[in-house]
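Q: How do we represent a protein-ligand complex in a form that can be generated token by token?
A: Start from the inputs.
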Amino acid sequence: MVRRFTLTEHITQQQREYPDATGDFTGLLSDIAVASKIIAHDVRRAGIGGVLGAAGSKNVSGDEVKRLDVLSNEVFINVLERSGHLCLMASEENEHPISIPADFPRGKYVFLFDPLDGSSNIDGNVSVGSIFSIFRRLSPPGEEGIDDLLQPGYNQVCAGYVLYGSSTMFVYTTGFGTHGFTLDPTVGEFILSHENIRTPQKGRIFSVNEGNFRRWNGRMRRFVEYLKEPAGEGRPYTGRYIGSLVADFHRNLLYGGIFLYPEDEVHPSGKLRLLYEAAPIAFLAEQAGGMATTGKMPVREVEPTRLHMKVPLIVGSAEDVRLCLRFLRGEKIEPDRPG
Ligand code: AHM
Ligand code: MG
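Then emit the structure tokens for the protein with magnesium ion bound:
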């Protein structure tokens, strides 16, 4: 019989590298996995469970909240607030930080998450995902506050996402590679399926909402036009855009390519949130050999000033991201030599 490696075993093994580890972190990741299994179950039942449709409120960024967003948010909060590993949380769905109720124990980590990203796709039965990011508390115990949440991405101790796709996948990094696990629904366990993912250095896919083309600056337009030219090796690139970050990123991570949500006239800082989307995705990309930039600086170097701040995101295969940066700097790109 083939020995199958579970997520819990993988985390436990990584933790053994740290002789001083208390097991706290292993416990936290196991709780995140439990929350994501509950959400996966809810997402699968969405059509039949009567939970599709708008919940009738708007989230802090002004987007309409679907009922599954609300449910997923509650699942993460309910599971993690009592875990004893966290002292503070922040969710894309909550305007303010989420504190741990006084009757539950507190731990040394803070947890930031987007409970159900891409939820505007739910009614179309398109893949959605959860994204999370973990930092160590900076403040002394009992004094946790917003500064513990507003940490730059290079301070992350862990980042990950769960993709509710044709199968459910849990992908995470603690800075020792990016690893993917697939939920085996028969036993309810995440099984190691993609160990140490290495994203291709150069891809053939570009993913961007081209409906915004005329709102981009000229340099961004020229870059995307360049990718579409039928000239030189590897071009034209194939356009693939779901409009669901986890699904778009995951596909490109495996196949190679570039994902862009640049600034434009309507979204002066892009659309994606630094703390819940861009920074964790950047950590995962870098650990797989890729790159992530805002166009001006590496995403993980951005110092957050607000919980829900947005940044432009350009992420993917290193050569493709570097090429994009050359366009954004206004460098002259030599045309390919024919044939
Ligand atoms: P959400 O957090 O409200 O779900 O929005 C984020 C989503 C991402 O999944 C996706 O990359 C992006 O919005 C798509 O935006 P657009 O529809 O403008 O292309
Ligand atoms: Mg989101």
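Residues 7-194 form a domain with the Fructose-1,6-Bisphosphatase; Chain A, domain 1 fold (CATH 3.30.540.10). The pocket of AHM (ligand 1) is lined by residues 63, 92, 114, 117-120, 209, 243-245, 261, 271 (CB under 6 Å).
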